[in-house]
Structures are given as C-alpha cells and as structure tokens.
Structure to design on (964 residues):
C-alpha cells in the first residue's frame, strides 16, 4: 500500500540530477578512461535513440527490430542538406528529423496493423528491405557501400551565398565548428539534445498520453471497450520513437558527416533492444544507462587485448597468469560481444528490469524503510 | 419509458455452430434486465455482439434508435455502452488510480487526444472523479496498489468503478457474482441495486437465481441461441420451458 | 523457358534450406509455443560440425615435400593418408557424410541441453522475453564459434562423387546441367521432411506432438507428460536445422554469422507459410527460395531493379497484411 512517490517535484529533482551528470561527464568519466569527446558523443546519441525506443517498447509494449532504419534515414537526410544547402547543422538536423518522422509514419502505419510477434517480424522485414534497398537500388541517394560523403563539389547553396570557401567546410552550428573546444563543443551540442530529449520523455511518460500507452501495453482490448481508439496512440508512439531515432542519426551525421547503410541493419536495431533491456525497460533513466554501458564496453572493453591482460595477471605465477589471461581474453577485446551476449541473457533471465531493477533491489535491501517505489 | 436497446432477428454462426438464432430482445431504459439460460446458450456471445467484439450475420442491434452494426468498439463505448467482463478486465500492471484515469480520460477527451504535455497526476477534475468512484467502492485507500495484486472481489469492484466512471447509459454485466461466496454476492447485489437506483440501465447475465430475482425487473431466457421465454420474474419462475431448458430446473 | 526452369531448380536447394529451418521453427513454436531466435544459430552449429569433423579428419603432420628439390619444402599430409593411404584419402573426401553421423547425436545433445537449461523456463513468459533470451543465446553461440574458428568463412567440399554437374535435361530433352551436390541437397531435404512427417503421422509420440500442437492445454490435462516430449521435440528440431546447415556447407562456406542471416529469412518463411503449420512452413520455404531465384534473373531485375534483395520481405509484408494466418495457417491463430 505504497504512497506514490512520483510528484512534479521528484521529477524535477531527477531531471536536474540527470542534467548535472550529463554536463559534468568530461569530469567524472576521467577515472573510467572514457572522457574523450568521440565516446561521450556516442553516449548522448545512443542514449537518445534508446529513450525514444523505450517509448515504443517499454511504454507501449511493441518490440521493433527495425528502428535502426530511422537512424539511417535521419543520417542520409542530414548529409544531403550538408551537400545541397549548408554545413550549418541546425537546418540539416531539422530536415533529418522531419524526414525520419514521415518515414516512421509510413512504416508504422503498415506494421501496426499487426501486434505481438507478427509486428516484430514485420518491422524486421521492413528494416532489412530498407537496408537492402539502400545498398542496391537507392544508391543514387545513399551511395551504397561507400556511404554518403561530402565532397568539395557539393553545391551548398545556402553557404556559398554567404561566403566562398575552399575544401570541405566543417560542420558548424551557426558558425561555431563542431570540433571547437578540442571537440568538446560537439559533445555539448549532443548533450543538449540528450537533456532535451530526456525532458520530453519525462513529460510524455507523465502525461495522459503516457497513461494510454501503458494501458495499451497492459490490456489493449480493454482500452477499446473503454472507448479508446488505440490505433492513433500506437502510431503516435511509433512516430515519436522514430523521430528520436532520426534525431540520433542526424546527430551522428552532424558530428561526423558520413552516412552508411550498415547503420540500418537489423542487428543495429538489436543493439538498441539490448541497451533498453540492460538499462531497465520502461524506466526513464534506464535506457540511457544501458546505452552508456554498452557503448563504453564497446569502446573500452574491445580495446583490451591479451597483452593488457597478461600485464594484469603478471603478479601471479606464470602458468596461472597466462592461463587466466587466455581465458579472460575470450571475453574481452574482439570477444566482448560474447560477454555482451552472456550479460544480456543473464539480465533477461534473472533481472528483467535491468540495471534499474538491480538498483531498486539494492536500495531496498540496504535502505529498507517504507517501501517507496521511485519511478526513475 | 423508451427502448434503450433493441435486438431483432439476430443470427450469428461460428463455422457450423449457430450461436445466436433469431434473437429478439428489448431492454427498456432505466430497468434491470436479466439474461439467463444454461451454459452454451449464447449469452456471452450476445453481449459480445452488442459491444462490437463479434460481428453478427444478420439482424439489427439498435441503441437509442441508432444501429450499432459495423460501429467500432471504442465508438460504441463512447456512445454510452459499458461492459463488465466475466473475468475482470483491468490494467493489471498499473495502479488503481491509473486504472481509473484511463476510462475517465476517455470519457472526457474522447477516443483519441494527443496530449503529450499535461501531467496526468495534476488534472484535478480527473483526480476528483477518480476519488469519487473509487470511494464508492471503498477502494480509494488502495489507489497506489498495483491492480494485478488485488483480490478477485476487489478487481471486480475496480472494474465496476471504471465502467461507472464513464457514466454509461447502458451497463452490460457478465456474471458479476461468478465465483463469489454468499457474503460477497449479497454485497454485490446491494451494490448493483444502488447503481440501478441511480437510473442506469443494466443488462445482466447471471446464473445465480438469487441474484437474478433480487435485481431483475425483466428476464429473458436464452437457450441454444434462441430466446425461449421473456417476461416478468414471476412469470419466469414457474414457466415449465425454463425448467426444461435447465434440465432439472434452477434453484431459487 | 530453359532459363526459367533453371532458375526454378536453382531455387530448390536454397528453398530446401529455408524449408528445413522453418520446419524446425514451426515445430518449436507450434508445440512449445516458443519463439526461438537461436534457431539460425543451430543451422550454423550444424555447419560447423562439418568443419570440425573435417579439421579432425585432416589433422596433418609436416612431411618433407620430395617434389621440390632446390630447398627444403614441407607439405601437410593428413595422418589418415599416412596411415591408411588411399582409404585415408577416401575417408577425407567423404568428410561431409561422415560428419552427418557425428552431427546427429551432437545436435540432439545441443538441443536437449538448450531446452532443459534455458527454453524450459521461458514457456510461460511472454513472447518478447523468449525472443530476447534466444537472441542473446544466438549471439553467445556465434561468438563462441567465432572465437574458435575465426571470422572468415571456411569453405568445405563435397565428396568427389558428388561434385561436378549432372545433366538433368537428358530426361526431358533439354540441355540442363545442374550441380550434383545441390541436387543431392534437394533430395536430402525432401528426405528429412518426409521422415519428420512420417514420424509425426505414424508414431504414437508423433500423434501426441500433433495433438499438443493443436491444443496444448488439453493434452496436459489428459495427464500426458508433455514436458519430456518437449525436450525431444526441441532436440529433433535442432537436429533438422543442424543437418540442414551441415549439408549446405559445400554450397555456402560456413562462417560464424550465417546463423543470423538465415534467421531473418526463416522467420519470414514461417510467417508466410503460417505460424503453426508444418506443411505451410515447407511449402513457403520452397516457394520463397524459388521466387528469390527467379527474381535474380537479369530480365526481372531490369524491370524491377534490386527486386531479388527485397522480394522475400515484400511477400512477407503482403502476406502479413492481407492474410495474417499465412498460406496454410489455421484460422484464428495469432490473428490480431
């Protein structure tokens, strides 16, 4: 019989805390060896992707294996603006998000005609189709395998109207280059969007719209007989999550003006599923944590090779040390996917609520006051 | 007193089985109309047809003079028909309060409203109404409990609260006292009497004859998909066709 | 006309692979109610059984190469050849059929282990959870294989007897040469399908399985210990997939990623055929294999560029939208 601890005040605290943590990343990530702009940008970008995905999966209960397609669309659209109009990322990103929104509308309309596993397979089929098309038929737009790149010959109408330049100009925000402040500007640019995206997701979750989505996840049939037309709600959730993905894709292109089709593969979609589940499905912060953990592991873990491990175990007698190094080397470096797979399985089997559930359990064990459930 | 629900010549077959065979039934506004009959008679099928869950083969279903054929389930509800299911259909993963908010929001905002911004827990009008209806069922103190963990009786009362919160014109109940012990049954009868007293039209499927005769102003007896008898409770009590349909008679 | 016929034949072996994987998937889904995203990995494991057996059989020692005279050259000579001469070479040549025998108990064991260790705990859990955990398992399995065998494809060869081509046209008066092993694969897949169907049709065990597929609850209520049978069904499905993968190795060099590639396609096949229909899975497998083959004809591609890449997905989409129960699925199964 717990009194709900979700209040506007607690949400504000959560939001401020989140903002502080994100803005201070360059500081507190130092001991983890992760405080470089490239990686921190990835945290923000994939955090955004995961937040949006969570709205469709965690809130509404629809598992899509095709969301990476929207990242691809966002990226391509953004790069095209870079080529045709201007290197200023703001208009490019606006276009990227809009295009992926429209794309999501079409795809969502088709896929949402079914539910459950059929829906998932439909998204899978459509995603693979888009991926295949991007590699073959749509090469004029996507430039196939090489990926869409910038060249000096790009018209960039808007830019040339302002000033002439030589070479490929860097991406910029109304003049400030992405690589400014030793690359940190790029990170903070992404961080702003992450914070905004997080705020919006809080509002959506707490709104009546959010309640409807949770109703759909729990008992869709009841919704119908309660007088609610579930179709537009589902479609809205799909488009919103698609636009989050599009935003992530646009950001990717903004910090690195290149768009490739490999981003659209279904296994890339699988990655965001992993992130959301690992972090805590249905929670507000969980997906971001999951994204950060996986991207961290991808970059740091995968860089650990055998020599590092041998060093690590050097304090032990040779035979045991090298044995341990050999065994653990299976799980790091190139083998980090193995670790990821095992970790994922363990989470699904034992801790379906992900890291957030783990935190909850620890809180309850050590701070067993009244059973307050803080929905973060 | 007008006819709020008019069902005429309704036929519905599943494959080779004729579930509804030329069913004629009229429910008068403001009354409690019971539908009884042996198992498999087609009572639930009939209710499901009314709310749009099943499509009938032929015939007409009119609600307040308006045909309900081909109308989407959510629209049927918006027009004023609410259904309580045999197994309580609630949102088991959500709190009681949230369970109440959904039908209230549907009632206030219609079948779809894209409101991404206003917080659900800050909408005073909705919260006040939720409190009112939960209080009615003595459930307000449990408002933060996850609905799935309630007892069956509580789930049933929650479902009733949810349906009533939409101020329906016609309330359809499918065996509201199924599986209940005597005390609970009597409580439910009192509850339903109060609801009826507010002027809400009710159509109830029931097996428990005690409930039927305590509440019903009119009874239709369904057997093998067909209405074999209809009339006042006293008329039904002694009717030999009813006893025959039940193969051994119902206990009163 | 010849070209079309040839393309149809071309689609048969791929269709056979699809049909076999889809068969296993449908068995598992229809009987156990589990969506198994690790099924592609089973196909891959079977293929790597062939690779392993081949590696073992061809364990070699370095022997002085007499034919090179102006420096000391060494070549690898398999032990079997050293000890058994020509018979040794024969054994090595027939490595794939030999691995068939090895693979059956291995895949059965893998299937049983998977079911007992993992799948069993997910019967009651929602489909999404099943997908997730088997997806994780698929990743783990393919990474283990990658760790042992590396990331590159490892080509395997068919026995000499079956390499080369056969002239099918002779029977019909057309000039139609077709690679022998692919014909063997087609016949093999038909054989397995026939075996599975006869098993289900003519044995008591099979009858229980079929009943379970139709109505699991009732079967359980009848007091039949369905769980033991579940393990065997899963093992059976694993064997079918594994063997399909194994025999496919001369056609497509196995690599650790092939499981995922085939997985997507096999789900699409199952959906088109009808989830829960065994004949549907088989029919859809062959149908889609042939369609994909036809779509890759240059004439077709010139009208619809890129159609071969997307035809399978396109058909799946159309089927899912127009007739969700698939070509042969039972009405009402998962029709939302």
């Amino acid at each position: 019989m717990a009194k709900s601890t979700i209040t506007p005040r607690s949400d504000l605290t959560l939001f401020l805390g989140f903002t502080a943590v994100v803005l201070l990343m360059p500081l507190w990530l130092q001991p983890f060896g992760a405080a470089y702009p490239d990686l921190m940008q990835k945290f923000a970008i994939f955090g955004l992707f995961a937040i949006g995905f969570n709205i469709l999966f965690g809130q509404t209960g629809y598992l899509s294996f095709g969301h990476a397609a929207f990242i691809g669309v966002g990226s391509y659209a953004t790069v095209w603006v870079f080529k045709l109009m201007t290197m200023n990322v703001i208009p490019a990103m606006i276009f990227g998000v809009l295009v992926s929104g429209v794309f999501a509308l079409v795809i969502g309309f088709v896929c949402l005609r079914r539910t459950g596993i059929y829906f998932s397979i439909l998204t899978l089929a459509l995603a693979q189709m888009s991926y295949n098309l991007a590699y073959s038929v749509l090469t004029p737009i996507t430039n196939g395998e090489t990926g869409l790149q910038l060249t000096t010959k790009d018209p960039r109408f808007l830019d040339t109207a302002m000033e002439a330049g030589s070479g490929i100009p860097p991406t910029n925000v109304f003049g400030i280059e992405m690589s400014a402040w030793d690359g940190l500007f790029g990170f903070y640019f992404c961080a702003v969007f992450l914070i905004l995206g997080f705020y919006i997701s809080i509002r959506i979750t707490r709104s009546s719209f959010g309640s409807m989505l949770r109703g759909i996840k729990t008992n869709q049939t009841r919704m119908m007989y309660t007088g609610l037309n579930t179709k537009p709600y589902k479609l809205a959730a799909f488009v919103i999550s698609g636009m989050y993905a599009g935003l992530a894709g646009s950001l990717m292109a903004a910090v690195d003006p290149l768009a490739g089709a490999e981003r659209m593969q279904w296994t890339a979609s699988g990655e965001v599923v992993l992130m959301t589940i690992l972090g805590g499905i249905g929670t507000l912060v969980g997906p971001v944590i999951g994204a950060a953990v996986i991207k961290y592991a991808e970059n740091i873990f995968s860089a650990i090779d055998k020599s590092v491990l041998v060093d690590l175990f050097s304090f032990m007698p040779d035979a045991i040390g090298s044995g341990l190094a050999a065994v653990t080397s299976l799980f790091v470096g190139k083998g980090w996917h193995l670790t990821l797979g095992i970790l994922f399985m363990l989470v699904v089997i034992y801790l379906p609520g992900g890291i957030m559930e783990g935190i909850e359990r620890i809180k309850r064990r050590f701070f067993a006051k009244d059973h307050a459930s803080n929905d973060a | 007193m007008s006819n709020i629900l008019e069902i005429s010549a309704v036929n519905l077959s599943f494959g080779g089985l004729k579930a509804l065979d030329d069913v004629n039934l009229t429910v008068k506004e403001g009354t409690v109309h019971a539908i009884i009959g042996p198992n498999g008679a087609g009572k639930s099928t009939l209710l499901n047809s009314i709310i749009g869950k099943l499509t009938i083969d032929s015939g007409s279903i009119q609600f307040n003079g308006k045909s309900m054929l081909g109308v989407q389930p959510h629209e049927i509800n918006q027009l004023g028909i609410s259904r309580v299911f045999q197994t309580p259909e609630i949102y088991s993963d959500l709190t009681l309060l949230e369970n109440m908010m959904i039908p209230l929001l549907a009632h206030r905002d219609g079948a779809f409203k894209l409101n991404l911004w206003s917080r659900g827990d800050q909408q005073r009008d909705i919260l006040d109404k939720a409190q009112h209806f939960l209080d009615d069922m003595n459930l307000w103190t449990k408002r933060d409990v996850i609905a799935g963990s309630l007892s069956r009786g509580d789930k049933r009362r929650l479902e009733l609260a949810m349906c009533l919160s939409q101020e329906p014109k016609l309330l359809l109940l499918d065996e509201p006292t199924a599986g209940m012990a005597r005390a609970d049954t009597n409580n439910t009868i009192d509850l339903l009497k109060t609801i009826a007293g507010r002027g809400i039209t009710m159509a109830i499927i029931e097996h428990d004859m005690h409930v039927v005769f305590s509440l019903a102003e009119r009874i239709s007896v369904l057997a093998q998909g067909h209405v074999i008898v209809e009339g006042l409770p006293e008329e039904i009590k002694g009717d030999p066709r009813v006893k025959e349909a039940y193969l051994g008679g119902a206990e009163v | 006309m010849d070209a079309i016929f040839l393309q149809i034949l071309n689609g048969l072996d791929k269709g056979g692979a699809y049909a076999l994987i889809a068969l296993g998937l449908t068995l598992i889904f229809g009987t156990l109610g589990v969506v198994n995203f690790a099924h592609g990995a089973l196909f891959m494991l079977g293929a790597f059984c062939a690779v392993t057996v081949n590696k073992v059989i061809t364990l070699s020692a370095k022997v002085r190469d007499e034919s090179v005279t102006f420096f000391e050259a060494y070549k690898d000579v398999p032990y079997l050849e050293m000890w058994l001469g020509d018979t040794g070479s024969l054994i090595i040549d027939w490595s794939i059929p030999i691995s068939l025998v090895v693979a059956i108990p291995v895949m059965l064991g893998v299937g049983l282990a998977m079911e007992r260790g993992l799948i069993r705990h997910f019967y009651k859990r929602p489909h999404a959870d099943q997908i997730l955990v088997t997806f994780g398992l698929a990743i783990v399995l393919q990474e283990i294989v990658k760790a042992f065998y590396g990331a590159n494809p490892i080509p395997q060869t068919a026995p000499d007897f079956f390499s080369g081509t056969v002239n099918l046209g002779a029977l019909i008066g057309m000039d139609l040469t077709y690679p022998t092993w692919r014909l063997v694969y087609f016949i093999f897949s038909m054989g397995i399908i026939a075996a599975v169907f006869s098993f289900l049709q003519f044995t008591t065990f099979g009858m229980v399985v079929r009943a379970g597929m139709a109505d699991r609850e009732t079967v359980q209520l009848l007091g039949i210990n369905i769980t033991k049978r579940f393990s065997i069904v899963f093992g059976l499905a694993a064997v079918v997939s594994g063997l399909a993968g194994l025999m496919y190795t001369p056609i497509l060099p196995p690599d650790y990623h092939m499981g995922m590639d085939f997985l997507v396609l096999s789900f699409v096949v199952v959906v088109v055929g009808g989830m829960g229909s065994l004949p549907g899975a088989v029919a859809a497998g062959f149908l889609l294999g042939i369609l994909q083959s036809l779509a890759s004809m240059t004439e077709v591609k010139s009208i619809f560029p890129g159609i071969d890449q997307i035809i399978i997905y396109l058909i799946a989409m159309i089927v899912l939208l127009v007739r969700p129960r698939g070509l042969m699925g039972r009405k009402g199964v998962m029709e939302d």
Notes: The domain at 2-56+95-322 of chain C is CATH 1.10.3470 (ABC transporter involved in vitamin B12 uptake, BtuC).
